[in-house]
Amino acid sequence: MISFSIYDYILIILYFAGVIYIGFRTKIEDKSNIDYLVAGRAITLPAFVATLVSTFYGGILGIGEFTYRYGISSWVMNAFPYYFFITIFAFFLAKKIRKAELFTIADKLDQAYGKKVSVFGASLVFLLVTPAPYILMLGILVQVIFGLSLNASMLICLLISVIFLFKGGLKADVRVNIFEFILMFLGFGIILPFCYFKLGGIDYLSANLPESHTSLTGGTSTGYLFVWFFIGMWALVDPGFHQRCYAAKDGATAKKGVLISLIFWFIFDFMTTISGLYAYVHLKNLENPAMSYPLLANDILPAVAKGFFFVGMIATIMSTFHSLLFISAATLGKDIICRIRNIADEKNIYTKIGIAVTSVLSILIAILIPSVVQIWYTIGSLTIPSLLIGVISSYSDKLTINKTIIFSAMIVSFLFSFTSFIFGNIYSAGGIPVYFLNLEPMYPGLFAGILIYLSGLIFNKREKIY
Known about the structure:
There is one protein chain. By secondary structure, the chain is mostly helical. It folds into 2 domains: 6-368, Sodium/glucose cotransporter (Up-down Bundle), CATH 1.20.1730.10; 370-466. It has 23 helices and no strands. The chain starts with 5 loop residues before the first helix and ends with a helix.
C-alpha cells in the first residue's frame, strides 16, 4: 500500500491544474492546418528539444519493469539502439523532413508513391502511435494515488488531454510538453540522492546485484536482443520525430534539436536505470515489477519529495500520451479518412473527430492488452519493417522505386510479420510463442520487404540504362 500526505496530493492536483491552464491559455492565430497541426512551423530550438525529449520518453513504468527484470541490459535494449538510429535520423533525415514542408509521414508517402501507399502507411502509423500503453500507465498511477478504479483513472487523464488538444492543437501540446520536460527531470533528480544517502552508493549496488543484472544481455537470448535493437529503428519512422521536424523553425533547428535531445535522453536514461537497479536491490521478489519505481519512492521518500517524484512520473507519461493522441487523431482524420474520401480538412474537423475516436480505441486496447511491454513489442515488430522501407526511400530520389513495387513490399512485409506472430502464438509452448526457425516476427517481415524493395531498385536502374 502506497501512502501519500496531503502535501503530496496538493502537488499532484496542481500538476493537472497546470496542464489544463497552460493548454487552455494557448491561442491559435488562425485555424489552418499549418497553425493547428505544425504550430505555424515556428518551434524554436529550446521548445523543440523540450517537446521531443518529453514526447519520446513516456514509458516510465515499462522502463522500471525492464530494469527490474533485466538490469543494465534494459539500457542495451531500450536506449543504445535508439541513440544509434536517432543519430542517423539527425544527420540524414531531419533537414530533409523540414525542407519538405509537409504535415505527416503519410503526406510524404503520398508525394513519393501515391494514395494507396499513403493510406496503407497511415494505417501502420496509426497502429504504431497508439496511446494505449500510456493511458494504461497513467491509469495505474492515478489508481494508486487516489484509489479510483483503473477505468475511471484512465478516463480522467484522457479528458484532461482531450480538452486542450481540441482547442490548441500542436501549439498547446508543445507548451504543455515544456512544463512536463522540467518536471520529469525534477522527479528523478529528487529520488537519486535519497537512494544514495539512505541505501548506499555504487558499492551497495555492486555488492547486491546478481550477475544477470550487471550483464549486458540480462540473461536474454541474442535473437531477443537483436529484435529490440531493430525496434530502435522506430526512431526513423516515429511520427513524433517527423511532426516536430515539420514544425521546426528551420532545418538547422530540427537537426540541432535532435542531437541536443540525445544528450538529455542519455542523462534521463542514466537516472532511470540507476533508480531501477536500486528498486531491484531494495524491493525483492515484486509480483508486479512495473510498480518498482512507485514502491521504491514509497519506501525512501518523505512527504513532498514523494509528491514531486510522482508528479515527475505522471508528467513523463502524460507528455507522451497527449502527443501521441494528437498524432493518432491527425493520422486517422486527415491521413486516412480525408485521403480515402478525397477531401481536404482545412478546418481540422476530421482531426478533431480523430481525437474522439482514438480516445475510445486507446482505452479499449489498454483494457484488452494490459501489458505495456507487450504492446510495445507486438506493435513495433509488426509495423516497423513495413514502414521503414516506404518512409526512408521516400526522402531520396535515388532510393525511390516504382509505386506498385513499394506497395507490394510494404504489404508483404507486414503480412510476413503478422503471420509469423499469429502462428508463433498458436503453437506456443507454456505460454511462450514458438516461431519458425526461432525467428522473431520482425525478421521475416524485414527480410521479405527488403528483398522486394531491392528487386524494385534493380528494376529502376535497368529502366534508366535502357
